[in-house]
Each structure stands twice: as C-alpha cells, then as structure tokens.
Amino acid sequence: MDSKVDLESSRGYLATSSDAKPKPPSSLARNMGRVLLTFVLACFLVTLTNARRCTHPHPAQSRVDKILSETPLIDGHDDLPIFIREFFGNHIYGDDFRIPFTEGNLLGHVDLPRLAEGKVGGTFWSVFVECPKNWSDFSDATYATSVRQTIEQVDVMLRLQQAYPNVFSEPPNGTTALQAFKEGKIISPLGIEGLHSIGNSLAHLRSFYDRGVAYATLTHNCHNRYADAALVEIPGGIKKADPVWHGVSEAGKDLVFEMNRLGMIVDLSHVSVDTMRDVLGAGKDDWTGSRAPVMFSHSSAYAVCPHPRNVPDDVLELVKARNSVVMVNFSPDFISCTASDDPNGLPELDPENATLEHVVDHIMYIGNLIGFDHVGLGSDFDGIPTVPRGLEDVSKYPDLIAEL
Q1: What's the gap between Cα 294 and its chain centre?
Q2: What is the pLDDT of residues 256-283, one digit of tens each?
Q3: What phi, psi does 64 have (nearest 5°)?
Q4: What is the pLDDT at residue 52?
Q5: Least confident of 8-17, 168-177, 223-232, 264-273
Q6: pLDDT in tens, 204-218
Q7: Region Disordered: start and end of each range (predicted)?
Q8: What are the C-alpha distances in Å from 367 to residues 215, 308, 362?
C-alpha cells in the first residue's frame, strides 16, 4: 500500500487499467519455516526458466497451467484487508460484500473467481494501516490508533479465512503451507506494513506473530523509532525522506534481532537505502544486520525505474549475498519512470510504458543480475489506484507467466 493511493477517491480506478537486546536466537532454526515461505516463489521462477529452455509439444498455456498446478505462485503483498475496511467497514458477512466476493465482480482487484482464474497459490495479505498524521512524534500516544486499527485488520483477515476455510489456509508455517497448496487452498500468511503498527512495543510484535503475521515491513511512508523510510507524507503527496537515524536505530537493531528470534521475516520495502544496507550488513557501523534472510515484499528495480521505493543495484547484490528475495511491485509508479529534477526527489512517471511487459523487464533485470532464486512477485493489488495494462487484477497471473 502506498500513500499516494486514496481508496475512497480511487473508486473509479480500482477496477481499471492505467526491551533489552536479545540473546542469540535458540529458536531461529525451528522457526525458519515462516522465512522459507518467502522463497517458494523463487523456486517457481527457476522452474519456469528451465521450462523455457526445453522443447515442449504443448502450447504456452498448457505449460503455464502445469507449472501453476505443481508450484504455488505466491504474491508477496496484497492489500485486500484495507480494501475491505475502506469500502465495507470490515463487514464481510453481509450480501453487499459476500455476493460479489464469492460470485465475482467485486470492486477492486481480488475476488474468489479471479483468484481461481489466476491460479493463485499463496498471498501475503497486508494488514496495512495508515501512518499517523503526526508521524514525526514517536510517542505511545501517537501510535495508539495505529495499533488498534492493526488489530482490527488482523481480525478481519482471520475472519475471512475462517469464513472460507476451503479457499484460504490458516496462517501457515513452512510445512503446513505446502500441505495447504496440495489441498487446493491459498497459502495465507499476514504481513504488517510499517512498525507504527506495533507502537513502541515488542510485545505487540510478538502478539501479532502469534496471530499469523509472518513478516513486518520496517516502515511505511513515515519514519518510526526503529528505522528510516524511503518516503514521507506531505500535504497533498509524498517526497523523498530526509533521514532521522541514517538507517536503523539502536532500538531497530534490537527489533530485528527479536524478529530473527521469532522467525518473523524482515521486510525492507518502503525503507530508505541506508536502512536496506544496515539490515543487509553493509551499513554505517559494524552491525552485521539481520541473522536471517530478508524480503522486499513489493519493490522493483531502481535501474529500470529510478524511484526511491525501488532497490538499487548495490543492494540487489547484498540481497544475493544474504540469500534474500525482491518481489516485484506492479504499481505503475514503480514500474515505468525516468529520472527528473523534481524538488521532492521523485521521478517522472511514464504511464505509456506501464505494461505487463515492463513488469517482466523488472523481473528479468533482477534475475539476470543476481539470479532468479532472488526475484518474486509482490503485486500491491487493492492498494494501488492504477495497474499495468495486461495486469488488471489477480486473474492475470497466467498471462504474466506466459510472457516470462
């Protein structure tokens, strides 16, 4: 989810195109299943790449169907929960939501028929809530509403999973995820988008983990007491952020270690480049960063589109060195752009080239640079007001795979 998206004003666009420092973690090894969930899609892309090298008597669609039936396509970031909050007040049992969600034509990018048509194997469902208006004040009072709303967003997604138990898995681990896929269910972990959602409390972090939150994005479009963001919100928009911590703060180091201890994945989408480098062990001091692989749940390649939200080449090399993954975002803002002298530090958008093919350019760029083990998909569906031509909603994943 990105702050440039106003879901209420985007109603006409959504369905159209264009704590003390912890000891070394004794439980990390047995909790790595949650981390390994992130890399299932990397295996999928390797399978796809190998398939392209082989002669095959069947047309491309048959090959796509075979791949998606055998290997789960996992989306690193989908904003269905905040869509439900904004448009339905988190009421999922009434006919106004239930009928279009189950039968099709729900406003937005996701419903059950389109998930089935897209052969979606798994999704990290984002339990996003907005940054506080006074985000520069890191007090408990500032974050109280954010914590409450995040609890509500976790609740609505868990209720949705319970309402459709034959469609969505319960929050999985590395073992139960693959079993859920074999049973025809969508693997359904949750993800927090910005640590304003936990306030200033690692107890909240642990509580969310216990309720199925598999990853936490360190920031959204606001700094917090743990890390610097890439962007911050200003009246009427966003701008490239000036640093507060120049990366990860001392409190943030403790938080990353606690996430490692739990087995919760550190997500570096939305963070500043300094924060990326710190967590990947190439930062401002002798801190070695995360002890476990990390993810970028919905970010693209800076070399292809020079947006502060994207990942530069030197960080991509660190991603490879740390056996981590970048899951390519579909937002036109981060897919198709050129450098500019904008005073807010943002590139010039190029909507004409916001296409499925340009998403493929990002995937191929990252894969060719650091290997296809380290690239995945993180659509940001239901959190973006416009989409690339050819990738209008979750039903279009087979078209993307066919293009690859």
Answers
A1: 12
A2: 999 999 999 999 999 999 999 999 999 9
A3: -60, -45
A4: 42
A5: 8-17
A6: 999 999 999 999 999
A7: 1-27
A8: 23, 20, 8
Give the span between the Cα atoms of 312 and 170, in whole angstroms. 35
358 is catalytic: no
Residue ranges covered by each domain of the chain: 28-403
Instruction: Please give the Cα distance from 7 to 403 (Å, whole number).
Output: 30
Please tell me the distance from the alpha carbon of residue 125 to that of residue 229, in angstroms, as a whole number. Answer: 21
**CB proximity list for 151: less than 8 A, separation 6 or greater:** none
Q: What is the mean pLDDT of residues 159-171?
A: 97
**Any catalytic annotation for residue 2?**
no
Q: Which of 233, 380, 392, 393 is catalytic?
A: 380
Amino acid letter, 310: N
Give the E-state strand segments of 184-332 in sequence order.
190-193, 213-217, 231-234, 237-240, 265-267, 295-296, 325-328
- To the query of whether residue 77 is one of the catalytic residues in this protein, the response is yes
Using CA atoms of 155, 160, 161, 162 in order, give the dihedral in degrees to the nearest 10: 90
- The single-letter DSSP state of residue 123 is E
Per annotation, catalytic residue among 196, 270, 307, 362: 270
CB 392 within 8 A of CB 14: no
Per the CB < 8 A criterion, the answer to whether 400 and 394 are in contact is: no
Q: What is the pLDDT of residue 284?
A: 87
**Residue 24 reports pLDDT greater than 90:** no
Is residue 193 part of the annotated active site? The answer reads: yes
Q: Is 298 a catalytic residue?
A: yes
Task: Return the residue matching tokens 């998606």.
Answer: 68
Structure tokens at 266: 């550190």
Class of the 28-403 domain? alpha beta
Catalytic (active site) residue 79? yes
The dihedrals phi and psi of 190, each to the nearest 5 degrees, come to: -110, 160
